[in-house]
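Standup notes
- DV: blocked on the single-chain target, sequence here:
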Amino acid sequence: MEESRRRFLTTAVLAGATAFGATAPEAAFAQDNSPVNPDAPDPDFAEGRITGVQGTMLMVTGSDRTLYRIQLTSGTSIWKLHNTTFDDVKVGDGLYARGARMPDGVLAADALWLNIVNLETHIVDIQRDTIHLDHHGNRIVGHVVAGTTAAVYNGTPAVSDLSLLQVGRHAQVIGAWRPDTNEVDIATVYYSAAA
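- DV (later): unblocked, structure below
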């Protein structure tokens, strides 16, 4: 289960999104065009799993076992399938955080994405409320969330109509992982309807 969690957490790469920019999940996967050495760790970024909450301070263990302290403020934007509040932050959630590193090593978070995943998949089965997916040989149950889940067909604006999705086709899925499971709540499915 630990390996599956790590795969989910490391699928996404965050770059450049802050509270001053977009808070949509797609902002978490934006291309970073800054002249920073791509092999150097970004001091203003943290990823991992929440192991403790003390007030508005999150204790996080990174996938590489780095320990982080992340301070949330009234200006921190929080995404967990949709924009949300600190009340939705739970021990066990995976996270990506971007902010400013303080002199004491604490990361003051501008933006926090909880359980976010960005998966390249193949559609295996489609049910009324679920889409069964294959991600590099791993089966994933994608839950369709009423009022939230949307599809983007061939780059058009997002719509709630999922009727053009077809079994056997490729789809990119952005969503929120359900910790310790092979299940994801789907935010957006990017799909090419062309043959």
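- Follow-up: The domain at 116-191 is CATH 2.40.50.140 (OB fold (Dihydrolipoamide Acetyltransferase, E2P)).
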